Batch of 4 targets.
Target 1
Amino acid sequence: MIKICQRCGKEYPPASNRQKYCADCRPAVTQEYNRQYYLRNSEEIIARVAQYKENNRDTYDAYQREYSKKYRAEHKDTIRQYKKQWLANNPDKERVYCERAKERYHKKRRLKKLEAKKLRLIAKMQANAAKRQTKQIRRKELYQGDSFWDNNLNAFAQRM
Ligand SMILES: [Zn+2]
């Protein structure tokens, strides 16, 4: 049996009775069907995706971060080219753009300095705690050691 494709009008041998389109038209028909489905249900689909994101915030954020990192690394030249082009097309915004870049740079540096300061403080506190502990242990040994009481009792006895 031969059928006529409802999309392109070509004759084709159908694989089943219900088939309406030839093999060449099938992918385009499916794509169009999916597009129509999305258009009919876009609100629900968008809401579902948003809900999914909300339920998996951490996983999603990590994925997003990883993805953009990879993308930036793989498209370094394209991004640089795009920025250059954008600046050429928006000469009036160049100043703002440069200032923002400067701000970002200084912010990063400030954060780095703060982080270093924090690490130094932590190291200092740890060193102090260790010193205090050593002192405490030494004092404990001093007061609990037999020699301490012996010496003091002897001294006390001599004074009597
Ligand atoms: Zn066809």
Target 2
Amino acid sequence: MASTTISICVAILLLISAPSYSSCSNSTMSSGDTLFTSESLGLRYCGFTMQSDCNLVLYVYGRSVWDTNSYGRGERCQLELTRNGQLVISNDGVSVWKSSFQGEDDNYVLKLQEDGNVVIFNSNENGVWFTNTSVSCS
Ligand SMILES: *[C@@H]1O[C@H](CO)[C@@H](O)[C@H](O)[C@H]1NC(C)=O
Ligand SMILES: *[C@@H]1O[C@H](CO)[C@@H](O)[C@H](O)[C@H]1NC(C)=O
């Protein structure tokens, strides 16, 4: 289900010049979810993309505003939100980047927010990790 939606988003991005992610319904991922190579979360003009060059990039109006600086670390990189709230980029099972927060096992949710901040929340809805980006996605 999620993969289908994400693939449609990628296809639409290739067809239009001004990158809008408005057709993408999905701007969240939960513990256990994976963004595979070339997949994105999207919200209006913001996109959070696991690129084929292994860099995870937050784009606003096609401009990069945040990234993991992990380009060139693999060709099949994927992003997982783990049970302990950590974002992990791995290539063929080898981790190449991890976010700083690691907590107890819980159902964490990562949200690409309207205000351009990407936030991981725990089940009490407390933010535990942030990209600290502040841009309007609309
Ligand atoms: C969004 O995608 C995640 C997996 O990436 C999935 O768990 C969730 O159910 C999806 N939400 C919707 C509304 O499709
Ligand atoms: C966001 O800001 C907080 C507080 O300054 C900091 O601890 C955290 O490392 C920052 N997040 C990133 C991804 O740099």
Target 3
Amino acid sequence: MELRDYTWPLFHYLFVPTMMSAQTLSVSRSPAPAPLPEHLEIGFRTHLLSVVAIAIAFILLLVLAVRIAFLSEVFPWYALLAIPGGMMLADFMSGMVHWSADTWGSESMPILGKRLLHPFRVHHVNPADFLRRRFADTNGEVAWLTIPLLCVAFLIPLTSNLSVTAAVFVTSFLGIGLMTNQIHQWAHMRRAPMGIRQLQQLRLILSHEDHETHHRPPYVQSYCITTGWCNRPLAAINFYPRLERFITWLTGIQPRKDDEAFHQEVFHGTVHITASPQPNVESGGRGQMYSSAPCMLSETLHISQGAAEYR
Ligand SMILES: [Zn+2]
Ligand SMILES: [Zn+2]
């Protein structure tokens, strides 16, 4: 095998977005099952910017870790405990962002609606679509959000036990936080890449089995998608329902109105068609949220028997 045989698939995976034209709908087989909504495609420029953001974020993270390892004037043993501490906080924050997006707001909101809420709406009704997203598409936005925080982390002095521990905590938090969407995508694969499955089995990152509990209607549990460590403790104290009741009491806004409306529209009304239907590679029952295919394979689930199949 030549070097090109290895580099071209990598280049294609990183840089070439999945292009699907709505026009191809007109030539799909008839009678065709209604396609589920899909993640909005990003253009080549956005894809390229995402690759750049991911590269910058990982370089900053690496330099930050090297700085702590070699330039710290002290390094107390308990600074190592800050690593799981940072991972725990990242998991909790992933749960808060996920819960907020699932529960409040409308996908018609400017910017946030399109880039944050809509993907979560689509993810509930068509979870396998997540596997269609490429690495840069999956991780680019989190990388852009993480870069400023990584820059701020360089301001933490490495001169005392406390500040070094804080630097380790922040680096751990940002490092695992940077990977949140990727970890979430791996959790949707039946066969995660080599090494990742072992991390999942060790419960160092969110596992396939742990995340499955979130994809059961009405999608009100296991919001944490980084390590999954916070899911059980938060469920034990009824954290999200209590918070929702408090917010509803405070504002009068009912939770999940937009998500329920989206679900209703998809399965009982107009279907959002954002891309052409692809050959059905697996059946589309809600209970079958996962695909055995790796994420670079383009795939789409279909409603084959209407809404009843998803109940
Ligand atoms: Zn969700
Ligand atoms: Zn998911």
Target 4
Amino acid sequence: MTKINNTISLESYWMPFTANRQFKANPRILSAAKGMYYTDIDGNKVVDGTAGLWCVNAGHGRDEITNAVQHQLATLDYAPGFQMSHPIVHEFSNRLVEMAPGGKDSGLNHVFFANSGSEADDTALKIAIAYQRAIGQGTRTHLVGREKGYHGVGFGGISVGGLVNNRRVFPQIPASHMRHTLNIEKNAFTRGLPQHGAELADDLERIVALNGAETIAAVIVEPMSGSAGVILPPVGYLQRLREITRKYGILLIFDEVITGFGRLGTPFAVDYFGVVPDMVTCAKGLTNGSVPMAAVFVQEDIYKALMQGPENQIELFHGYTYSGHPVACAAGLATMDIYKREGLLTRGKELEKYWEDALFSLKGLPNVIDIRTIGLVGGVELAPRDGAAGQRGYEIFVDCFKNGALVRQTGDIIALSPPLIVEKDQIDVIVSKLADAIKRTK
Ligand SMILES: Cc1ncc(COP(=O)(O)O)c(C=O)c1O
């Protein structure tokens, strides 16, 4: 069994979403990071084409975040969040509300904290059901997601999620799924948003007709699906979904765990698409990936509806030991300072065209069947090998890493999402390493 430096065994660590035995036989181990680069344990520099896991939006090793975390740990390392609070959690939630998805007048002016995207999504689903009950719609407990959706790995998230491998082994809570919007036949190699597929939002009408609107609490979607391999919403799709949910009194939740904090070239996808939902979940870029934290932005009327009954009564029986953790709040505030000072939440807009052109230069390479880009996100889809789906994608991912670029593989799709500090020459390096890997992989 491989050991790190011949001393540290890899065996005891059960790795998440990893082929453990394959990995441990040939590990890829990162030991340091700064700016746009990782360093692996052999001292090789690896350019980060994925902002870690879609989270390190301001680049690695930011001193401001380190200092804020150190200071907070030394000042107040932890404070209970139940029936107690501490200054920095209020400071941070106020700051977030000022820059809420859709702007500070969007109505998304309350924040519930969690520690991961999965927890934020489950929190939002629970708030939706609790809200419906609070307004006298207690029959509305059914949830709706979408095929190919990813909303983390809690039981709520996998139930509304639409990735078969995350679902097949586990029981789920009642949920229906709208059709996904990936249509390579009609939309392959479209620059910008796909033109075909707005009518897929009408699939919600089918689910309403089947179950009755009075049973449905909420619909959750990623405005842009990342984990399924970069699936963009067709022009007009999200607007239509907003209209239909409104018509039937169904809450709309946007999962912005990936799209939040500048990934699309706007602060949130809400700003990119101009569609304001009832709740928005976020995580990852919230603290630049430095300390686990997630948040749910909630509309004023939802919060108000739950602030009913005797004042000495807990309104929502939900929360985590680490909700609003002071150290995470400190990291988050420092992160927001960096985003603001460096204009990172809109930097993707400036680079969007350059990025798109760079990725579209891969068109015509062997096995490339689609390229999709938006903001600083890119997806390159490859034809699967006969009887070995995902193998080609995996080999390209490994090849890129060996040659100094971290990309993300989902099946036979390579996803790219570099830190928002990326420079044009670094985009060129990432894309050319990917091009070489694609050419080398049969
Ligand atoms: C859209 C979306 N929702 C939820 C999650 C889950 O987040 P976490 O892994 O922090 O639980 C992810 C993670 O990639 C995600 O992309």
